[in-house]
Specification:
With about 190 residues, the protein is mainly beta. The chain contains 1 helix and 13 strands. Helix content is about 10%, strand content about 35%. The strands form 4 sheets. Strands 6-5-4-1-7 form a 5-stranded antiparallel beta sheet, with no helix packed on it. Strands 8-11-12-13 form a 4-stranded antiparallel beta sheet, with no helix packed on it. A two-stranded antiparallel sheet has the order 2-3.
Length: about 190
């Protein structure tokens, strides 16, 4: 029997194999975005992650659905909330006070903001240093737009003012979960 040269796959089949391989790689790459219980996140986004409320009227529910009781209403557009778990349509969030609730995905935005939860002003500096000049001060219980964080500092913006704040000074920049994802929805219990 004669040795036959290896057969080359038809161009269409080769393209299909390449696309299939790319899909497998993309699925495996997204496998790192998991919920606390190990399941992949329905959105493909990491958990925990920070989002902000889109409107001044957001219902906080006891569970992921319209049939769950409304626990309270958020009245602060732009408030940073941390997603700690999710379903396809609902996000379990931790708010700046440490309360946990479910909100519909349509009422949160990927636009980031920071919140001064302290009773003191926070300095907005010209650079990433405690020695940099103070450009402005963020009042207690105030919001400011977040551009991004690096090396322990976050760049913030308010109208034409840009500056830097220490990442730990405001709510909305921490990478670790702020609330336990297994905790039922409800207000934070103060000790």
């Amino acid at each position: 029997m004669a040795n036959l040269p290896p057969r080359k796959a038809p161009d269409g089949l080769a393209r299909l194999a390449t696309v299939a391989a790319a899909v497998v790689v993309a699925v495996l790459a997204g496998a790192g975005d998991r919920m606390p219980d190990g399941r992949p996140t329905p959105s493909g986004q990491p958990v925990p992650r920070w989002l902000s409320l889109k409107s001044d009227e957001v219902h906080a529910r006891q569970g992921p659905g319209l049939d769950y009781r409304i626990l309270w209403e958020y009245r602060a557009a732009g408030l940073p909330v941390q997603v700690i778990a999710e379903t396809r349509e609902w996000r379990k969030i931790c708010d700046p006070e440490g309360s946990v609730a479910w909100v519909h995905r349509s009422v949160v935005s990927s636009r980031r903001s920071l919140f001064n939860a302290e009773a003191r002003e926070v300095s907005i500096r010209a650079g990433r240093s405690n020695e940099a000049a103070v450009r402005a001060r963020l009042a207690p219980r105030s919001l400011i737009s977040l551009e991004g964080c690096e090396q322990g500092w976050c760049e913030v913006r308010f109208r034409r003012l840009r500056g830097w704040v220490a990442a730990g000074a405001l709510v909305g920049a921490a990478e670790r979960p702020q609330c336990d994802a297994n905790r039922p929805a409800g207000p934070r219990h103060r000790n």
